[in-house]
Design brief:
This protein has eleven helices and 18 strands. It has helices at residues 2-9, 34-42, 81-95, 134-138, 199-202, 207-213, 257-274, 277-299, 305-317, 319-329, 339-352; strands at 15-18, 31-32, 53-55, 57-62, 65-70, 76-78, 98-101, 105-109, 112-115, 118-121, 125-127, 144-157, 165-171, 174-182, 185-192, 223-232, 236-237, 240-242. It is globular and about 60 Å long. The mean pLDDT is 90.
Length: 355
Amino acid sequence: MAAALAARQTGFEVTVADRSQPPIDKACGEGIMPDGLTTLAGLGVQLDFSQGARFAGVRFINGRQQIEAKLHHGAGLGMRRILLHGALVKAATDAGVRLLWNRRVTGISDGGVVLDRETVRCRWVIGADGQNSRVRSLAGLNRFAAEKVRFGFRQHYRVAPWSEFVEVHWSDCGQMYVTPVADDAVCVAFITAQKSLRLRDVISHFPVLAAHLNGAPAEEYPRGAVTGSRRLRRVQRGNVALIGEAAGTVDAITGEGIAIAFRQAIALADALKAGDLSRYEAAHTRSMRLPRAMAALILSLDGRPVFRRRVLGAFQAQPAIFDRMLAVHTGAVPPASFGIGNTVSLGWHLLTAQV
């Protein structure tokens, strides 16, 4: 939907084909950072905050350790995925995008796309069809430079949010994300490297979260998905370009996946207008550098309890450093603003923190 809106704004006639039909759901944390909201607004999508819940920042919780920081450039929005998809569908419809539901891509060529047995003539083909992209396979772009897989599960609980923060709870078995999505509901997402684990089986490993959820009814069966880091050798060839998870992923631990796709949509539309997909390839590479670096940094805490306690202890001793790292991560300030002083200070506190 974002790619369609960006291309439509650039002046293209756009057709979207999807083998599903609305409302389309997906297992995700359902939080949109302020930079993602700003990008959406530039695409003509003004989300209704009354359909979700605002959040003011991010809090890490590791046993008795807690560290938090507020967002620097406005509130984020927790919003159920089907409501977000509905808003994007409406915006695309209003913009004049042609929407074809329950249509399966069975072939592509220089001149068009085959939907079931019908050929749709087009100049450009955009694969925005997820991490198991059929378009990517048909275009011969299924070559990965690197891949690391984890597993995610999502569940909604009927309970009033107890915090204005998105909470990230840590344990040796993985991470739990809690995002407020309504006045009376939270989204809980569990991410783990252990394929055999399930959300309902590990709540007790996160005692602070378990206390908040005690007695709260689950709204539906958990929804699962594969997450992780996947880097492609190329994201374009000929008249085909890939976007979003079809073009590679960063681990869901960053919380930035959907905002990355929104920014890629604008870069892709600019490349289409210029008639040069190599420009999009370069822009895609740039767009993934910081999220991949932040994912690697945060994941260095996973499965290393002593190191995790030391790092969070350092953040507790110097909360301004955690605040600055969140600002860099969400695009509020450039990475260079972290500075040598913060790096030295963090290193010193890592060396001296009590474990």
